[in-house]
Design brief:
211 residues; alpha+beta; 7-stranded antiparallel β-sheet; 9 helices; 7 strands; globular; disordered N terminus; disordered C terminus
Length: 211
């Protein structure tokens, strides 16, 4: 038991990752903070429509206000948009970990369909709920990501995300990328958990902690 806990919390030492890698604590903090947001999107048409409107108009002030109304802990983090999706940045020592949903860049501009976002939110709610409440599950996922175990990451995610619209699960940027394609939607969407980079942050409008 001790060895398992130690492995779960162990940080990487590779200089390419700045000596810090994703662990259960990172995944659980992000999931706990974002869970109320996904619940609001999934259950409220009005909220989902308002959120999509704020995303496509790059209205960061409105996004911040909406996020704070349902998920205050997430609203205290960094927030960004590229006009086709959104990103919430969680700051850890030597690491920024990001959660968001977006249409793949280069596909279209200024589109973010509330109906699709709602469907994705309903699909991923069990994943974020499980990560937030089950440290063993979060630990297994973190270890699988660190080891590049694509098969195990796919198995863990699909054990709680049950929809035919989930077309692919990949390890990307020390995190997960879930690709969705719904029959009523023109574009693919991706729900992302990933380690942020400087270059990724430059490519979108951002608002950091009220600044």
């Amino acid at each position: 038991m001790f060895k398992r806990a130690k492995l779960c919390n162990r940080q990487g030492t590779s200089s390419s990752w700045s000596g810090f890698k994703v662990n259960a604590h990172v995944l659980q903090r992000v999931a706990t903070s974002m869970l109320p947001f996904y619940r609001a999107v999934a259950t409220s048409d009005r909220f989902a429509i308002s959120w999509s409107r704020a995303v496509v108009t790059a209205n960061l002030d409105l996004m911040k206000k909406l996020l704070a109304s349902v998920a205050p802990r997430a609203a205290r983090q960094g927030l960004g948009t590229n006009g086709i999706g959104y990103f919430v940045d969680f700051i850890f020592p030597k690491l920024v970990y990001t959660n968001g949903t977006t249409i793949p860049p280069g596909t279209v501009q200024f589109v973010f369909e509330p109906k699709v976002h709602q469907a994705i939110a309903r699909a991923v709610l069990p994943l974020y709920r499980r990560l937030a409440s089950d440290r063993t599950f979060a630990c297994k996922l973190a270890i699988a990501i660190r080891r590049g175990n694509q098969r195990l990451v796919n198995t863990l995610v699909r054990s709680v995300v049950h929809t035919r619209a989930l077309k692919a699960v990949h390890i990307e940027d020390e995190g997960t990328a879930l690709s969705f394609k719904y029959p009523f939607a023109k574009f693919k969407y991706r729900n992302l958990l990933f380690r942020e980079t400087f270059f990724g942050r430059r490519r979108r409008l951002r608002r950091r902690n009220g600044i």
